[in-house]
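SUBJECT: A protein chain and its fold
Encoding: whole-number codes for local backbone shapes
Chain under study, with its fold:
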Amino acid sequence: MHTLATTFTSAALALVLAVPAVAQDDADELALALERAAAAATSELALLEERLSSDDWMVFESASRGLVQIHLPEVARIAPLVRELRADGSMADLGAVADRVPGLWQAWTLFADAPDDVLDATPDEVAAWARDRFAHLQSSEQRARLLADQQVETGQLVAGLALAGERLADESPMTESPMPEDLAAESPMPEDLAAESPMPESPMTEDLAAEPVRCGEDVLDWSTDPGALHDRFSGVWEYYGTPGLTLNRVGDFVCATYGRGDGWMKLAIIDEHTLRGRWYEGEHLASCAEQRAGTYHWGWLEMRFDEDFDDYVGELAVCDGSPVDRISGA
């Protein structure tokens, strides 16, 4: 589970581990940065605890975006814009619009499939609809688990920063510090921490290639062009910034696994360079009205590869709605 604070503290810790020799002034600055990072992580944890106890906040884990925290009253006020964009087909430009309207991505994620009369209701009524719709992800048990996970990670980060600070203080100016491998081996952060994170560290390509793909029996709305069957789509591709998407052709389809196996795809080969199909996840902020492949968390996507299959671009949608996000990778 990664927040801004934990990302910053991890970066600060990595910086200390990687510096082989520092002058006293630099060491003092790094020590101060470590203290600030630890304070930021502790403050972020306190803020999360406050939000988890408030009905005004919805907190979810997302495989693609990490820990998502939404201030429901604020997002509910822009719900009518979702209806307007959905009606005139402007959702293909959601990314550009979202840059100018804070909270639009969260609003679309919550209300993409909300009835028109809900989106035209008062903000309080819109918020009430969202609380009811996503109650299964906002139970006391779910919130307690999120908080417990964050408490563990924050404790490990603060302990790691303290250890790095102690080592920095013990080193003589302009002398070589221990090898990063030694420090990493003694770090209090366990190796399985990355495996528990919804935004996984980039695993080794060999591991990804060995991971079995999932395809499933879901019937797609698109069929494969028999003349476009080839294996050039197969391989390990970037997906939301990490090389975590494994594609393999299985019969007439391309099947995929991502997010350390929690997410999977079934894709039709539309033409020589285009895949279109569905993504599925066991848990996701978005929830559809019907199940597909045994989950309520799914949507469709299209991937268009360049002539040499060096990279791809495309769009992603939630459920059967209009595209809500652009995707790309190499």
In short: The beta strands are 57-62, 66-71, 235-239, 242-250, 253-258, 263-271, 274-281, 297-305, 312-317, 323-329. The chain has a mean pLDDT of 75.
